[in-house]
Design goal:
Helices cover 69% and strands 0% of the residues. The protein is mainly α and 85 residues long. It has one domain. The longest helix has 31 residues. The protein is elongated and about 65 Å long. The N and C termini lie far apart (55 Å).
């Protein structure tokens, strides 16, 4: 999967076990080491960004907790607006 995106060469040092595992996976996936590393980086960065977002979301709820009375009022309103048929 080659794309026309400009790339910069970066040296990454791996130990023998990492290279062996990467080569085995590359063989099965029929991809290059570089492509697998690029994909792994994208997945890792996405996971970190998601985790940061989750922490921010949780912090926001700690700063401004949910109002349980408001939810109860909304539930009551919904119950009266859409009675069971």
């Amino acid at each position: 999967m080659m794309s026309n995106v400009a790339r910069k060469q970066v040296l990454v040092q791996l130990n023998d076990a990492q290279v062996a595992r990467l080569d085995a996976l590359a063989s099965v996936a029929e991809d290059s080491r570089s492509e697998l590393i690029r994909r792994a980086i994208d997945l890792y960065v996405f996971a970190v960004e998601e985790a940061v977002g989750d922490v921010r979301y949780a912090d926001a709820y700690r700063r401004v907790p949910e109002d349980l009375e408001e939810f109860a009022a909304l539930r009551d309103l919904a119950t009266h607006a859409w009675p069971e048929g």
